[in-house]
Amino acid sequence: MKKLWINKHNTSELLLFFNGWGMDEKPFKHLAADNELDILMIYDYTSLEDIEELKDYKTIHLAAWSLGVFVAAKVLAGKKFASAVAINGTLKPIDENEGIAPAIFQGTIDSWSEVARMKFNRRMCGIEHGKQLKANFPDRSIESQKSELIALQEQITNSPVPENIFQHALVSVNDKI
């Protein structure tokens, strides 16, 4: 697990953001502009660990996206937040009914390549937004993303479904993942 401060002003309020699989800070670096909140982004879930930085904050807002929803719920079990939103993710990310079908998840691992990544990014963002965001796609290697996906598969299949720590869930209409 990697931690990156998008903003660090040493305020009493934190936005804790669990990014999606395969991501880094590049698509979200714009969050630093004119933002007075401290923002800590968590990504690369090859291994999981506690987040000691939380103890320094009076108010914590949680946002988690995609596979980050499962990881946040697992890592932050029992913690309470001023607000907590899950975005396009589920507590059962590998599941026939409430997540990605196991065969599709395994197929993504087996076929992960530069061509597969391009297709995934198009499906994730759509053609119009994909063109706009292309310069901001993550700067991660195919091998790094694949290793993370394999680690997530192991964590998901070898763990009980985590407790729901979220107050709200957002699901986009055109989510093709």
What are the salient characteristics of this protein?
177 residues; six-stranded mixed sheet; 31% helix; alpha/beta
Overview of this protein structure:
The protein has 177 residues and is of the alpha/beta class. The protein contains four helices and six strands; from the N terminus they run ββββαβαααβ. The protein has helices at residues 67-75, 102-111, 114-133, 142-157, and strands at 2-7, 13-18, 38-43, 59-65, 83-87, 168-170. The protein has a six-stranded mixed beta sheet, with helices on one face. Helix 1 (67-75) links the parallel strand 4 and strand 5. The longest helix is centred in the C-terminal third of the chain and has 20 residues, at 114-133.
Give a concise summary.
With 177 residues, this protein is α/β, with parallel strands linked by helices. The protein has helices spanning 67-75, 102-111, 114-133, 142-157; strands at residues 2-7, 13-18, 38-43, 59-65, 83-87, 168-170.
Lateral strand order in the biggest sheet:
1-3-2-4-5-6
- Helix/strand class: alpha/beta
Report the biggest beta sheet as strand number plus sense, adding barrel if it closes: 6 strands, mixed
H and E order: EEEEHEHHHE
Number of beta strands? 6
Q: First CA to last CA: what distance?
A: 23 Å
The average pLDDT score comes to 89
- Portion of residues in beta strands equals 15-25%
Radius of gyration: 16 Å
Low-confidence parts: none
What's the overall geometry?
globular
Relative helix content: 25-40%
What is the helix tally? Answer: 4
